[in-house]
Amino acid sequence: MKIQLAFAWMVAASLAVSGGRLLAQAPAAPGGDAPAVGQAAGGQAPAAAAPAPAAAAASKPILPEVISTYGDAIDSLFFLISGITFVILVIVFGLFGYFVVKYRHQAGRRAVYTHGNNKLEICWTVATSLILVYILFVQKETWDNIKIKDLRTLEDRNPYLVRIFGEQFAWHFVYPGKDGAFQPNETKRIFAGVNPVGLVDAEKDVYSVSMMVPAGVPVIAEITSLPKYDPETGKEKPGVLHSFFQPNLRFKQDLVPYHPAKIWFEVKPGKTGKYEIACAELCGLGHYQMRADFYVLPDNELGERLGYDWKAVKARFPEPAK
Ligand SMILES: [Cu+2]
Fold first, then answer.
1. pLDDT value of position 195
2. Exposed, middle or buried: residue 62 (CB in 10 Å: 0-12, 13-18, 19+)?
3. What is the pLDDT of residue 46?
4. Do 38 and 196 meet the contact criterion of CB atoms below 8 Å apart?
5. CB within 10 Å: which end of the chain, N or C, has fewer?
6. What is the distance in A from the centroid of ligand 1 to the CA of 219?
7. What spacing in Å lies between the alpha carbon of 276 and ligand 1's midpoint?
8. Which helix (H) or strand (E) holds 90?
9. Alpha carbon of 251 to ligand 1 centroid (Å)
């Protein structure tokens, strides 16, 4: 009976662990060039102009430096959930060890067979549920701020806009042109080799294989999974799931084919540096090399890269294709 209790605790603990959304860091991809078809086409990346992130900034153990305004809230949740899981882990393994010793083989002692204990079943189910409901309420504000926010509320702060495209196995970033408008993109143009994301008039937008953002300003990004041209069949290979992951922002979001989504983040004011974007969704054999540089640039340098003063421009996303 008591050995069964220990086992039950292990089950309860593992349930709690799976309930906790632990922020797993994607494996760092090697710095090799992305192999995507379109990547060679005139992508510009800032040189080593941006200063490296301050090593001293990593004030928390385990986790990489936080650079987004909501990153600290994510870290608090991470440590809270890890703490709860750790306590359960200690209880489970403590009991486990205790029972292993207490009920070790002894000559003449017979094993007891049992069908279980309803009271215990109810207890650990309710206890686990209460922990999960508690986490649900504690994290709600942070989740709403990051994922459910009405992005129109950011409008009056003149947000910085960028379009993010993921394909097997590369990232593409498109910034508006001087007039603030983005060009629409069409799949057939990608296949025609016009430009990596199939912009109708690629000259008008700014294209890069790196992501460049300012600090202290909300960034709104439209994320899209691109289809791919299959040279063997000559046909369109539908886009697949990717996941945009920038650990220092504490931000991760799936790219779902045919369902472009809008995301937002804001880098803490005054930050600059070079960081890394990874794909956090196994998207095929080349998944491991799907990475990109992520630059937080001072306003003047960002202006230089874009070729205009983005703050003076009212950027807007393209209308969805009809
Ligand atoms: Cu991917």
1. 85
2. exposed
3. 54
4. yes
5. C
6. 22
7. 14
8. helix 71-102
9. 15
Element (H, E) at 252: strand 251-255
Question: How far, rounded to the nearest angstrom, does the alpha carbon of residue 189 sit from its chain's CA centroid?
Answer: 29
Long-range contacts of range 52-57, CB-CB < 8 Å, 24 or more positions apart? 52/273, 52/274, 53/248, 53/273, 53/274, 53/275, 54/273
Ligand 1 centroid to residue 178 C-alpha, Å? 30
Q: Does domain 151-312 bear CATH number 2.60.40.420? A: yes
Distance CA 291, CA 288 (A): 8
Residues 6+ apart with CB under 8 A from 216: 266, 267, 268, 269, 270
Task: Produce one character per residue of 234-259: b if its CB has 16 or more CB atoms within 10 Å, e if not.
Answer: eeeeebbebbbbbbbbbbbbbbbeee
187 C-alpha to center of ligand 1: Å?
18
CATH 2.60.40.420 intervals, the chain: 151-312
Q: List per-block mean pLDDT (blocks of 10 residues) for the chain, which spans 322 residues.
A: 42 40 35 39 46 50 92 96 96 96 92 90 96 97 95 92 94 93 86 84 90 96 90 85 97 94 96 96 95 96 93 83 50
For residue 197, the CA-to-ligand 1 centroid distance in Å is 15
